[in-house]
Amino acid sequence: MKNAIVTGVSRGLGEALAAALLERGLTVTGVGRRSSARLASERYRFVSCDLADAGAIEAALIPTLDAIAGLRSEYVCLVNNAATAEPVGVIGSMASDAIVASLTANLIAPLLLANLFCRVFRDTAQERRIINVSSGAAQSALPGGGAYSIGKAGLEMLTMQLVAEHGASTLKAISVRPGIIDTGMQQFMRSQSPKALPSLAMFQDFHASGQLVAPNVVAAKIADKLVLGEIEQGRTYLYKDL
Ligand SMILES: NC(=O)c1ccc[n+]([C@@H]2O[C@H](COP(=O)([O-])OP(=O)(O)OC[C@H]3O[C@@H](n4cnc5c(N)ncnc54)[C@H](OP(=O)(O)O)[C@@H]3O)[C@@H](O)[C@H]2O)c1
Hints:
Structural class: alpha/beta
Mean pLDDT: 97
Order of helices and strands: EHEEHEHEHEHHHE
Bound molecules: NADP nicotinamide-adenine-dinucleotide phosphate
Oligomer: single chain
Number of domains: 1
Radius of gyration: 17 Å
CATH superfamily: NAD(P)-binding Rossmann-like Domain
Shape: globular
Helix content: 40-55%
Low-confidence stretches: none
Strand content: 15-25%
């Protein structure tokens, strides 16, 4: 039996990835504020958790992680997918609590989940993977997208840290920058004012020039190449690598 834990399954890439993994026979645990009717399956369960509420994460997840560990399956994979692009705004214009919520959902929650994952799944006979869904924004500063970029840069360091500390075992960690996907997140960026998001034209151009890829297409590639395929320890995969 193969188990996957995927955050942010209500829509977008996370929903499509959870569906792709169910289609491929995995048992899937979705984590987030809402689930999706598309994921109905005997092999699917959902843990309700607001990942911007750091204090609630451990209590929400531990019973389910312990239950998965008790199954002694041959393979378990955590996909840190959930993220928010809010707040958009240049530094100097954002509300403090919105910055905290962004970095909690996009960076602190993945670190807390990785920490719990490494604590609970200790069996080195089991193949264990952590896949951090990053973005090109991790290495490019986009005016108006600072809170998001800073979180993604930190998320890629989480991958590197996991490899430095656990990489000699059967635990593998990678980052993936999944490309430009036709989801609510891109729609949200296109709907901003140029004042809040000085890099607005780039997002409008992605759409106008037909560069957006359907979430099901990206999800199938991630499922086959990164969740189920052979992966290179610590690598940052780009869409063109998939
Ligand atoms: N779309 C792109 O072009 C693109 C490009 C590069 C990287 N990415 C990355 O790909 C991943 C998926 O993005 P997407 O485009 O699918 O985004 P999306 O359509 O906006 O979906 C985001 C998902 O994250 C969940 N989420 C957000 N905040 C949460 C919170 N506080 N607690 C629990 N769940 C929360 C959302 O749940 P709710 O329904 O509850 O809000 C939703 O399920 C993200 O890591 C994103 O950074 C996307």
